[in-house]
Amino acid sequence: MKKIKNKLKEHKSIIENFSYLSVLQVFNMILPLLSYPYLIRVLGTSIYGKIIFAQAIIGYLALLVGFGFSITATKEISVHREDKEKLSEIVCSVLVIKTLLLIVSFVFFLPLLFFYNQVAENKVLYFMTLWLCIYEIMFPVFYFQGIEKMKYVSIISLIVRCIFVALIFVFIHNKTDYLYVPLLNLFGAVLAGMSSMYIVFYKHKIRFYIPEFAVLKFYFKEAIPVFLSNISIQIYVSTNKVLIGSFLGMTEVSYYDLGEKILNILRIPQGIISQSVFPKISLDKNISFINKVFKYSLAFNTALFLLLVVFSDMIIRILGGVQMLPAKGVVIILGLTLPIVAISNVFGILVMIPFGLNKLFSKIIMFSGVIFILQFLFLWIFNFITIYSLCTITVVTELFVSFLMYYYCLKNNLWTIKSTTI
């Protein structure tokens, strides 16, 4: 008992963050079960697919605004958590840079209104979907994660999500109400942003100011490797929705989105673990601790995949009804990424980033984007583009990423075949 108490005391912050994140993610699993089945039945697969397609397009702009700070800024906050002046510098630098990047994103967005038919025909929908970029700026998750106070993120996110789900049933009753989906999301983004900013600048006494150009340049350059890697990740994650919508249709986008939603729910435990232990690993760099995280992650995600294979048909019927059963193949194929992502998550996010291999990490992810594009070109040239083939090349790309990350961790002596355990 004494040993257990000492372990609990030693990892108190991790356990606390894990608990808050677990509560949040449990509700994140329950709430979609209320809103998604309603939306897919009321709006239909085609209109719902149009909303998801818009989110995929605007997601590229949100990626630019986020610019990799979710990792680099979190790391800096974690290291300097006791220095209030340094925290002010980091937070203000990130917010200023993100605001400038938002302006740049608008410059990229405007041509789409005239040269891309999918956007030009639904201008209002796409303008409203820009809530993704606003949320990226106003909700500084990197700060709360870095100081290991995820309770704030959990509480704010939970309240906003509950309000969003409730308002869906109030305002959306038929297909013509589809614009309320991005509008309600915009309302939630502003509400969450204002609440979090109040905590950061008023409760935590973070001083707001405009940092010098040299300071902004430093944080910008530090985030570039992660941003480049995020671009490649976006290529073989969100690009599938764009490709499916462009080549196959909006109904197929709905099928893929359902598969992705189910997988995102099943990936929640891995995300909780990573977010909880990342600040500690960045500080301690304990390989034996990481090894234990890896073993449990791999075993757990493999078990999740097996359960998914058995119960996929039932899950799809509950969430989307009989009309969504064609998504079963998508769910099974994407499910293969569960154990694969567990591997890449540990060796990439929890080993390479904390140990300073940001550039190598970025190169691996960038190269994986090239691999995905080459596979897609092969499918396009031989006229073999289907929803299942696009899912398959995603799995192959994830496998490629995991192998390279593991290889370079071994090569740089950050991992051993028989690593010790705690």
UniProtKB/TrEMBL annotation:
Topology with respect to the bilayer: Multi-pass membrane protein
InterPro entries tied to this protein: Poly_Biosynth_Transport, Polysacc_synth
Keyword terms of this UniProt record: Cell membrane, Membrane, Transmembrane, Transmembrane helix
Top-level taxon: Bacteria
Localization in the cell: Cell membrane
Keyword Transcription: no
Claim: Transmembrane helix is one of the keywords in the record: yes
GO cellular component terms given for this protein: plasma membrane
Transmembrane segments: 20-39, 51-69, 90-112, 124-145, 152-172, 178-201, 298-319, 331-353, 360-381, 387-409
Name of the protein this chain belongs to: Flippase
